[in-house]
Amino acid sequence: MTRELFIKILWRSLAAFFVLLGLIGIALPVMPTVPFLIAALWAASKGWPRLESWLINHPKYGPDIQVWREYRVIKRRSKVYALIMMACGYIVLWLFIPQVASWLKVTVGLILLTVGSWLASRPESPPKTKTDSP
């Protein structure tokens, strides 16, 4: 197997993994969809142009992905939904899954806090240009 083929398979596998997580997010309310599709877009852009095009042109998720790609913007509704679902998932972890070690729960909490802080700090709308003003 050539190095180029190996790298292409690696990027495609990563993209497929993120799409799978996004599909799981459609079914499970505690797991967001769009962030995983954005990650899939990133991986697909490295070695799967057809999947990249499909994600960008998807009727439901494509507009959010396009805005992210162009402006690094996440809509407020999407941010709030993702943050609420992350918090709910963490509460479920603490209350309903007692067999998980406390150190792991704390680690998950720190990761969620870091990701949630980053997510909350993203802009909610594209920057205004001089042509946008009345």
Walkthrough of the structure:
The chain is mainly α and 134 residues long. The protein folds into two domains: 1-71; 74-126. Helices cover 73% and strands 0% of the residues. The longest helix is centred in the first third of the chain and has 25 residues, at 3-27. The radius of gyration is 17 Å and the shape is globular. 15% of the residues are buried. The model has no long low-confidence stretch (mean pLDDT 87).
Descriptive labels:
134 residues; transmembrane; membrane; cell inner membrane; cell membrane; single chain; mainly alpha
What's the quick description here?
By secondary structure, the protein is an all-alpha fold. The chain has helices spanning 3-27, 34-47, 49-56, 62-71, 76-96, 102-121. It is found in: Cell inner membrane.
How do the strands and helices of this protein lay out in sequence?
Elements: H1 3-27, H2 34-47, H3 49-56, H4 62-71, H5 76-96, H6 102-121
Helix pairs in contact: 1-2, 2-3, 2-4, 5-6
